[in-house]
């Protein structure tokens, strides 16, 4: 049953535009957010890590890549509309089959997250270097392993409620912002056989993904979201299991 | 806060094809399932009831109709693909704004239900006149008002698990079928400000919607799903509420 | 199905000790918190409102009072241990039968709330006049009717996470505190046929229950928690419903 | 993060009365249900398995045993009232600290389960050798690993709805009974830092726990319920985290 991170096939998808066009972002993530996350997951024991980006053919998410991915991590912001519907449909189908999905920060507005949630996924925001403090509200949950009672981030973009998503099946973190807002920052869902984790922090102009506790949460979430060989599911027209079912 | 059914603006949408082309169905619902449901809701006290069908312009769901609908009831089966994406988007947007939605039986595969759920909504089925017994598993819930411990339907189409929907926020009914299957037959969800109730029974070749307890559940669900004047929601870029939010 | 507040039989239970022994509290609630709440509910349309206090015989909660109560409101703080186990068992039994229960502020540590939750109900606290802002995270919910996007309280005692309760079935409010904490401040549960709402604010040395929006939330919660005539429940040894159940 | 079953410290608690006084039960479980379960868990890879029974001093659950238990399995039926409140309080406290708890069959009426649930835990029952079919309704969940779409048990005692427990946080199995009933047979809860799994089958006069799929579910549940080293929790009076928290 157990998933060791070294056996989990991880694919990190990144839009990878800000880093190429905005020197301020490039200074923080010179080889892209995906590369920083890949290095962090490697340090956490990951041994099967790939990356993919928007401007690769099929955004790097050809069927063979997705079919051999256990957990997909998604960061996007400025070009959600450029992600092809065909690739979104493929990712969606893989999640229902059991592939884990970790959606980061501005990925709340990605096509794939909105398709899985069925809502607008809208929220309040402010680029103003608020202090953020993520409080753990599910302290026995594996995603919180190794953390303290809260994670503090010196400066982050603010996201505020109401966050228009379905009520999380498990709520892991609630963020406090110095500007006066709160946010449900760690939200677990299941869709079909797949597990989904939305994790709020990660504005591109700030060094959030270099933060060791952020890296720890993402590594924990990879292990939580990895597929388990649960029971099979079949659909369609079925004969009765009991003989005298009609009276 | 309370919603009296006489004040709720109800629209019943029906595909209305089987009734026109299949004499067996026409014998049961000569003026269409929508007309039978409208009469039942009128008997339950509804005074603001309209119907709409697939073959009307814009399927009868022009903006003005949806904008003045509190609760929309949906029955479809054979022509889900003929429902225009534009109308689906309009219904979806109204649900997020607070319009209630009651999805009946084969409506599980409608575009609007799948869009709101984010999953395949697939299931097992068998047209074989099973006996169905819907057990109440949330006995204090308003949707169960006036019922006994279970509802028995002499003959119904079987729907069996696994039903590929997100875990219901509240599960109201579980069906037992004589052929050996079970099904989560009454499922409550919220999406945005809207309430959604999926209710399983209602195969077109059987007189299910003439059943008084079915009618009672649907009338109860209309009252449960009616919008309440809850708190407003705003989205987008927001100034800080606290003065010294940056340090 | 609908519950008009004028028909709901409300009993407000208050420990009523601080008001009699602490002049600072008496200045704010000269006739007790229960009397202030009763007046507020009367202004909201309540016409069937009683109060009961700890020092009355059986704490004012004799069987006849509980049997004719639809919704019980509970405020206690300093004398939880003085509430008799017999009265707690009676309240517990009535909740399972369908009586609504609204637990306020320091009532989180009451015997009845801990018995219904099954957990320690522990939390962090600080008497330091923090500013509190309760954000609505379920904007279509009837408990939020008539509110804005948040409620602001100039000064309140802080309660902070982790709050050791079962995950709420519906989370309505999340509090932001100026001292840096967050709290799940409006939590809905069902136990048996009864509905339970925990609502955080209300420290005795501050005029919180004179706040109109607090009063509005409590009146809304009374209507939400009022029992509905749902399906009956029977328990124990039962004959089979199907003839040939053994093979 | 991952828990290998060989490292999990398992304690199996059994009332162990039927087996000693009823020859029919003794024929099926000659050394007690606990010994059968211990052997099954050993076959599944468990290497740290102890048993404890009612008639041992302190029911075999002295502080040192509980303090070194990761997952406790509980089977009781005829003597729930003989379990001392002190031992129940100790188990309760350990669950809130993170110890997993698996409650089997008639354990639904045990003191510890009722204390954790906060409800009556009542249900319908019939000793009549119904056929039971447990359908998986959460097919990606680790507790279902290695199972088919359902588990069939030739003969079992019937348990029927309404089952008076809080709505499960995750519902894993729904049982179909040949007599016409359904039951929520696999229910997951969290209380404090602990995970709880209620699993329905296991009447003492039938060989249910010799069934390989039953054994598989219990072994899976042990791994799911094992504590994870999540975030710490502290409670009580706390200084502010922000400097200027009062205005």
Structural summary, described in words:
4 copies of one chain form a homotetramer. With 247 residues, chain A is α/β, with parallel strands linked by helices. Helices cover 24% and strands 28% of the residues of chain A. Chain A has 7 helices and 10 strands. Chain A has helices at residues 18-21, 23-28, 33-43, 63-67, 85-97, 111-117, 212-225; strands at 10-14, 49-53, 71-75, 100-104, 124-136, 150-160, 170-177, 182-191, 194-199, 236-237. A 9-stranded mixed sheet of chain A has the order 2-1-3-4-9-8-7-5-6. In chain A, helix 5 packs across helix 6. Chain A starts with 9 loop residues before the first strand and ends in a 10-residue tail after the last strand. The model of chain A has no long low-confidence stretch (mean pLDDT 96). Chains in contact: A-B, A-C, A-D, B-C, B-D, C-D. Chains A and B meet through helix 6, strand 5, strand 6, strand 8 and strand 10 of A and helix 6, strand 5, strand 6, strand 8 and strand 10 of B. Strand 10 of chain C pairs parallel with strand 5 of chain D, so a sheet runs across the interface.
């Amino acid at each position: 049953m157990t998933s060791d991170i070294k056996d989990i096939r991880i694919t990190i998808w990144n839009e990878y535009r800000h880093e190429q066009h905005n020197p301020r972002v490039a200074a923080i993530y010179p080889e892209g957010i995906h590369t920083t996350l890949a290095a962090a997951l490697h340090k956490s024991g990951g041994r099967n890590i790939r990356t993919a980006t928007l401007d690769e053919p099929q955004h790097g998410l050809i069927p063979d890549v997705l079919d051999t991915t256990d957990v997909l991590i998604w960061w996007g912001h400025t070009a959600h509309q450029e992600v092809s519907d065909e690739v979104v449909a493929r990712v969606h189908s893989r999640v229902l089959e059991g592939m884990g999905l970790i959606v980061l920060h501005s990925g709340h507005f990605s096509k794939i997250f909105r398709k899985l949630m069925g809502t607008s996924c809208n929220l309040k925001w402010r680029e103003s270097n608020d202090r953020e403090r993520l409080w753990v509200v599910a302290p026995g949950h594996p995603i919180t392993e190794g953390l303290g009672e809260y994670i503090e981030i010196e400066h982050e973009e603010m996201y505020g409620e109401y966050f228009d998503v379905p009520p999380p099946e498990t709520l892991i973190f609630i963020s406090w912002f110095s500007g006066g807002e709160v946010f449900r920052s760690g939200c677990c869902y299941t869709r079909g056989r797949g597990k989904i984790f939305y994790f709020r922090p990660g504005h591109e102009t700030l060094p959030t993904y270099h933060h060791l506790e952020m890296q720890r949460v993402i590594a924990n979430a990879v292990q939580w979201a990895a597929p388990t060989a649960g029971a099979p599911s079949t659909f369609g027209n079925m004969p009765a299991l009991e003989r005298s079912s009609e009276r």
